[in-house]
Every structure is written in C-alpha cells, then in structure tokens.
Amino acid sequence: MLPAIIWLVLGVVMVVAEVVSGDFVLVMLGVAALGAAGASALGADLVIATVVFAVASLGLVLGVRPALKRRLELGTGHRSGIDALPGSTAVVVSRVDGRDGRVRIGGDIWSARSIDHEVIEVGVEVTVVEISGATAVVMSGA
Asked: Membrane spanning segments where (predicted)?
C-alpha cells in the first residue's frame, strides 16, 4: 500500500504545481501518477505501476496536452457581443450623418453616426468602425 500512497502524493503535488506553471505538462504527469497509484492500490507491483505511469504520461503529454492547448488558444482570440461588431457590415435603414441615423447589424437596429460626418443614404452597406456607448460608428465603402 505504501507505493500507492507515494504515487498518490506525487500525483497530487504535480497537479497542484500545475497551477504555477500553466503549461499542462505537470497536470498530465500528475494524472498519470494518479493512474499508477490506482494500479498500485489494485495490487500491481512497482514495475507495473511504473509502466502504467510511463504509458499514461506519454499518452497524455503527446495526445491530450496539444489538443487542450489548441482549445484554450482558440478561446483567446474569440470575440463576442459588442466586441465582435467592429469590422462587421451593416445596412443603413435611416439616413446616417455625423450626428444621427440607424443601421441594421445582423438582425438588430442600432443608432449610428458616420465617422467622418459623411451623409450615407438608406440601403447603403457600411462598415462598423466602433461601438460608442449604444451607437455604431460607421463608414461607407463596406
């Protein structure tokens, strides 16, 4: 039972240490150590537990870690809500000038003003430059 406790402690220490490193290597090794602890608790000798640790480590570090890192990196560039609107295309539904107007962005009607005080007529496609409060600042030439 002592090897199982050693593997268990090693696994927990590595998983906790991952909080500091953030590179997903230690957590993979920690999970592999927990697997070795389980094998050891079920009666496997030290050699079998070590093989379980080695195989699980390789599988997790080479298989799971890259997929997990890709998944997390995709999340950093994702924009949603108001942050996703700049750069999108809108259609003028009520004449837009430097002070007032209305545009349809997606399915929603937004108050709008042109960035350079240009008058933009109904039906023209525009590009959303920024969102200022509840107003879309737009420019023609979408």
From this structure: 41-64
